[in-house]
Fold each of these.
Amino acid sequence: MAKSSKDARNLELQGVHISVGEGQLIKAIDRAIKALEGPDTMFEMKVHKETNAIIVKVLNKETGETIREIPPEKTLDLVVKMMEFAGILIDEKV
């Protein structure tokens, strides 16, 4: 999914189909993010590849430094490693 309505417009220009519902969802998320951002902070959202979990970062506008990350990407990476390890153990026992 696109990060913003500008990204959605770029995807449409590249020939990627975005449904009306997805477009409305993107616009609603954009409005919510703008309402939550303060004078010193901004939000960044992305999808963790392996778990498909949405990660929200709160960043300092001036420095770009991460103030908070929910859930922490390192935690999701650890979950992936645990899942891989559990899969290896099951494969070895069978």
Note: The first helix runs from residue 5 to 13.
Amino acid sequence: MSVTDWNRSGDWFLEQFGVLIQRMKESRQERRAVVEKYEQEISAREEAVRHKTDSVNKKLNKMKQNGLKVVTDGDD
């Protein structure tokens, strides 16, 4: 193999390696974007569940207090 062919081959391999590295970088960025999207969705759902749970707990506590008032008022 001549020196010119050797250099061309080396350049070709470097180009291919560069393309491969670029694809790996883009793939990694896409995966990170997908993960971030799902993390945001999970966070939003968790917040909604927490809000609903707090609301239900408040209502249950109010019902308990009202029930205690009914029971204690009847004992007089």
Note: The helical segments are 3-74.
Amino acid sequence: MTGELKVDVDPAEVGFDAERLKRIDRHFARYVDNGQLPGWLAVVSRHGRIAHLSAYGERDVEASAPVEADTLWRVFSMTKPVTSVAAMMLVEEGLIELTDPISAWLPEFAEPRVYVKGSSLRPLTEPATEPIRLWHLLTHTAGLTYGFFHEHPVDAMYREAGFDWSTPPGVDLADCVRQWAALPLAFQPGSEWNYSVATDVLGRLVEVVSGKPLDEFFAERIFGPLGMTDTGFVAGDADRVAAIYTPHPGTGRIVRAPAFDGWARSRPACLSGGGGLVSTAGDYHRFTQLLLRRGELDGVRLLGPRTVDLMASNHLPGHADLEEFGRPVFSESPMHGHGFGLGFSVLEDPVKAKTLASAGEIAWGGAASTAFWVDQDEDLTVAFYTQLLPSSTYPIRTRLRQLVYQALTD
């Protein structure tokens, strides 16, 4: 099985101190022992070899089911880089260009309006000064938003339309996109960065341009060729799916979130390219290796190297970081020192970010505290899996970076 996960190299052979790597395990074991996480899995790879793999705790506390190498995780926004790769495959085929207005395929975006002032019930809007283009969707600069933000009147309009943490029951992706297009943009396209449903719109664009539903495109063009046999919008084995938890507001200890128990048990009405996938650590490891190897893995090439290099470049104007160009809202990345590429964050300035990671690192995470990064300079990939909403509860990602890089000795 191609997605199997196991340590296949002595850490010292790839420049790691094995004892220092064990600090990862000791640190995150405390989260489980203190009742702050149900369980977790971490994988560290260098030069294409897995140097460290560890798991601790339970995927389902109530069932006393342990975290295992083949546990299925709801990766939420770690779906976004997959959708972005799909879109860039279509760019490489000459079917669409980064500068193309998306209204050529999604006519509902032909005349977008932009919020100027007023309440969510009585907004004053103006026409967009330029069309929403493909690169706006890929970089979250289209003017779209999320309903679960509580920062802007347009956020409230999304919630009023039924888009909070999810989409309205029974509404498919095409209908969701039409409803989003009917709402005002939060700002003029290209003028700011705001984490949003842009990648869901991108997923619909992939469907229209390719002529295939998003799940079929993913399966035929990405997951099948890469051997990602356990990844999709539906879990092949529901017994392996990890349960989702939230922190108790008083004690901070985990509490099961039963509203999510049904997710991934059957094909959803809305195939969310922004957050709908379920995957294993082994499967997603293959996806990170594809990015590390600039579009090719085990003889299968999905993207050209120059395309991956372009995706891994900061596309924010003037090499700005998210703190300068973005709205001060929750995202799956730190803001200081990080720019944004075509589908994931790009580390622009390690000093400004106060991190040991390398400039050019690409990364993203999911709402339930999953995360990955790819460091070309160090030929390194790292991923972490757990199921705790929201991902901003604990500094998991920043601590994991410290613990990985301090173990590098070459």
Note: The first strand starts at residue 39 and ends at 46.
